[in-house]
Write a structure and sequence with these properties.
The protein is mainly alpha-helical and 98 residues long. It has a domain of 65 residues. It contains 5 helices and no strands. Helix 1 packs across helix 2. The radius of gyration is 22 Å and the shape is elongated. It starts with a helix and ends in a 16-residue tail after the last helix.
């Protein structure tokens, strides 16, 4: 769930506790007015973010390099644990443009 959805849900519960006839569409409008409070909310977390394709490629590239040199990766994990299950997917079949 995104930070925005969590924020709207929180506002909906606040409004519904005060008024049982409070509707979700009203919570959306109120949340839009109170956007500045969203950044200070503690319910948002960045651990659920997806990596972009470019980031994943860079990560895999650095992982391959660290395997060759025998170094450990950032965070103390070695590339074997990061690339677990990727044995057949490492080499691409596309041809490079010249």
């Amino acid at each position: 769930m995104t930070a925005w959805n969590d924020f709207v849900k929180k506002i909906y519960h606040e409004g519904h506790n005060k008024n049982p006839d409070y509707q979700f569409k009203q919570a959306l409008k109120d949340a839009s007015k109170r956007k500045s409070e969203m950044n200070s909310s503690s319910s948002s977390s960045s651990s659920g973010k997806k990596m972009s394709r470019k980031s994943r490629k860079a990560c895999m590239k650095s992982c391959k390099k660290s395997c060759r040199s025998g170094r450990k990766m950032k965070g103390g994990m070695n590339c074997v644990s990061k690339m677990d299950g990727m044995e057949g997917k490492v080499g691409g079949t596309r041809r490079r443009r010249k």
